[in-house]
Amino acid sequence: MLRVSFARQFINTLIKDVKPACTANAQWLHSSQCSHRPVQRNCYSRLNSQWTGHLHKLNSSSTNFVSHHSVATLPPPLPENLLFRQLFDYQSYTYTYLLADQNTKDAILIDPVLELVNRDVHLIEDHGLTLKYAVNTHCHADHITGTGELKKRLPSCKSVISGSSGAQADVFIKEGDYIHFGNLSLEVAATPGHTNGCVTYVMHHNGRPVIAFTGDALLIRGCGRTDFQEGDPETLYRSVYDKIFSLPDDTLLYPAHDYTGQTVTSVAEEKKFNPRLTKPINEFVEIMKGLNLPYPKAIDKALPANLVCGIVEMPKAKKT
């Protein structure tokens, strides 16, 4: 009874003291459009000091309580010069990511969508950025990439995709390569299984991974389908475990799609809650083989276009 009483007291105190700081930091944690500024570090400092104080009380009063309960960790701090925007396409449920070095103004776009190139260009111009690369996590089957159109609009831009994708691009990447923009970079991790050319892009800071852009290999509480376009469930399972679940537990994971309104997850969350990938490999394979998903409605148009960098004839604006 004493342990339960203490636990209740601890939780009530934690809610009262930490909630204001959490609220102040909530926009950074959950917003789909966030810029990481020095204020982020202040929120971290306040949260960390409060958590440390409460945990010290908890350790001194009930060692057994701590040993049998886990405490959620905060996201790792990101580079102070990182400009980050998470953008969304309501038609294909695709996330596009703008990353830039705020000091040098060099930028990259991950998984741009053709119909939303105007949005992306305006955002780049608003921030005075130079788009160095339009990067794809794989050759998509559910939308046409905006890479080709971006290259027409912004001559500084080069297209980037895995050499295993079979698609055309200015730059072909492979496992262990780095994509540099300003003083920031992304490491390439090959994560095939959804397609042969799937890659995950990992950002490091302070000598450790802090963010990974997982494409369709790993989604929030799900994963990419494996029933077409060179898909293989066993390969996908091993890719996720070897290249993504091997990252630190607090690494933030940003997928290429989400269909439920979620924006970000973490390695720890997916290792614990992903209903498919928490299963043994043989069960995962059976789950994926039994999904019986419908034929992708955009694949016959999107896939051929994406194999040539998304270069298609744009529809002309209607006269008014």
From TrEMBL:
This protein's UniProt keywords: Acetylation, Dioxygenase, Iron, Metal-binding, Mitochondrion, Oxidoreductase, Transit peptide
Record-stated family: Belongs to the metallo-beta-lactamase superfamily. Glyoxalase II family.
Entry GO MF terms: metal ion binding; sulfur dioxygenase activity
GO CC annotation: mitochondrion
InterPro entries membership: Metallo-B-lactamas, Mito_Persulfide_Diox, POD-like_MBL-fold, RibonucZ/Hydroxyglut_hydro
GO biological process: glutathione metabolic process; hydrogen sulfide metabolic process
Assembly: Homodimer. Monomer. Interacts with TST. May interact with RELA.
Reaction equations catalysed: S-sulfanylglutathione + O2 + H2O = sulfite + glutathione + 2 H(+)
Broad class of the protein's primary localization: mitochondrion
Cofactor(s) annotated in UniProt: Fe(2+)
EC number: 1.13.11.18
Cited Pfam families: Lactamase_B (PF00753)
Location(s), subcellular: Mitochondrion
Name of the protein: Persulfide dioxygenase ETHE1, mitochondrial
Transmembrane helix is among the record's keywords: no
